[in-house]
Amino acid sequence: MTTASNLHGGINMGQGICDVPTPDAVKRAAVAAIEEDVSIYTRFDGDNELREALARKLLRHNNIQADPETEIVVTCGASGAFACAVTALFDPGDEIILFEPYYGYHLNTARVGGLVPCLYRLNPPELTIDFDRLESLFSAKTRAIVVNTPANPSGKVFTRAELEAIAALCAKYDCLCITDEIYEYIVYPGAEHLSMASLPGMRERTVMMGGYSKTFSITGWRIGFAVAPPALAEAIGLISDLHYICAPAPLQRGVARAVDSLGDDYYADMCASYLAKRDRFCGVLGDIGLDPVVPDGAYYVLADIRRLGEDTAQAAAMRVLIDGGVAPIPGSAFFTDEVGEHYVRFCYAKRPEHLDEACERLSAWGRRL
After folding, report:
1. Are strands 343-347 and 329-330 parallel, antiparallel or unpaired?
2. DSSP secondary structure code for residue 112 in this structure
3. pTM above threshold 0.90
4. Distance set, CA 280 to CA 57, 69, 286, 354, 356 (Å)
5. Alpha-carbon gap, residue 366 to 227, rounded angstroms
6. What is the number of other CB atoms lying within 10 angstroms of the CB of residue 117?
7. Which tens digits make up the pLDDT trace of 114-143?
């Protein structure tokens, strides 16, 4: 869809590029690190300064006490953390439970690693969980369940009750929980982000993944991390070293200094900005009859495209692009069955002028529908 958007002169709201500016404090910190010649390989599990900054952040924001020497691994993005965890912790044939709609990298990385994905579908727009049905997916072969909260592409933020119920299943079936919390700072009023590893009994069986691609608008820097008990963290770190050696050293140092220097007001202001964008864009979608699944977190929205009468989500996405001038992603990229054909996904992490233009184009198109 990015290629198609470029071809047709569309505004690309498909790929999660996040073209809002990087905070000046983050850029200055990275430039300073480059000027200080922070240019050689880091330790196998990441720059010391970043691991220590992450330990302070985890205690302050996630209620997780993690030893920076043994329990934190810096990776090439959160996707790199997941890829290394799959390779380090599981064997081909192991089963892993994913929620659907899923993030494509989770599903495809598991498949490439030889794992057997077991999918639990969250039906939009409610996205609620039937825990009896979820438990039916657990078996003696289940090694882990993946929880992406806030979630891409649905924007679902898992509640405390849902996380506690998942934790109970992990304990009952003696399996790991892998959490992708990359959007942890983008949570809207009425929802609350809670880290699974902070729940009683879950610290020793959780691999938490995160990063600053979204929080600092540095998707191309590839700075992520994993937090896990020492034996698991060491295995993940060794695989990360094997595949990547290390994430870019000066960018690690820049992120470390930004994590320590940016206060809570930065995260609040960023979230407020995305809330305003969410409300405006979802309003436009509702006005033109593409009913949105209003997200509780992250910066994506699923829109119901059945009104367009197309046979597939791909055809509907191309119609939105060609006729409406805005490129979404077909919902079939996030579902394995026909439910995905009813939706497209938009990313509203856009500069104000780009979002304004997208809203104007869709509104004008909607008047012609």
Report:
1. antiparallel
2. H
3. yes
4. 32, 44, 10, 13, 9
5. 46
6. 18
7. 999 999 999 999 999 999 999 999 999 999
